Amino acid sequence: MRELFEQYIDRRIANMTFSFIELTSGDIHRDVGGYPGRNHKMVICCDVMYKRMAGDDEVISAPPSGKGATVTVRYYKKNHQGGALVCPVSVKKTAPKKTASDMKMQPNEVHLMVCGHRFDFVQELIPENVGGKAVAFYPQQDYNNKKNLPLHQYGSGAFCKFQIKASGIAGVYLWVIQDEIVYIGETADFKQRFNTGYGNISPRNCFVGGQCTNCKMNKVVMKAYDAGNSVKLYFYVSDNYKQVELELLSQYNTMYNVKDN
């Protein structure tokens, strides 16, 4: 279990896109598995978090015992440049517009430079929601399953619906959650890939032989939104989208570009 925590934290640190990333023990253990549960390994998880600290990394919060589900550590990118980060990433922010209260970063004024390619911010992926919770849809119930096909590993349970405002251009896209690139994909038609793919799960795609990636990533949006996080979408326009995607995937071990996760 210790090794799994180490691999998870190392990947999150390596793939951070901004100057620091904050990781919380409870979130780490849930993602790795086994928490909550009677045989959880929270003490080991916290121990790994502390041992992964370097330089001026800092503990943002912790219970009196120092071990628990609320331990939060801020890891600074500059302290981990010798680790697994093998592809230069930088974030450029232009001067934010002033409001009556303060200055707020406008989403369309942010872009990511990843391996020399400029990815422009498109939008956050916000599902249809009521009261701060994503509306649940069950498309698998609408499928006329004449062949008695089984659901694939991502086909059960609830899904959400969302859309993006974009044209049908070709290129490569990034999904970013809490400053980490969690997914890299390519498409010949950006609008269609999201609005009739990830954001609107067809009944057939819930079953074996269907597009399981759509289901997997739809659940990522739903889970993130219900947890109070957001999925930020970035896009790089390119006719060589397949080549660019392969270039990025050769450098990044993302959370969801793994076939069995």
Automatic annotation (TrEMBL):
Higher taxonomy: Bacteria, Bacillati, Bacillota, Clostridia, Lachnospirales
Cross-referenced CDD domains: GIY-YIG_EndoII_Hpy188I_like
Gene3D superfamilies recorded: 3.40.1440.40
Name of the protein this chain belongs to: GIY-YIG domain-containing protein
InterPro entries according to UniProt: EndoII-like_GIY-YIG (IPR044556), Host_DNA_Degrad_Endo (IPR053748)
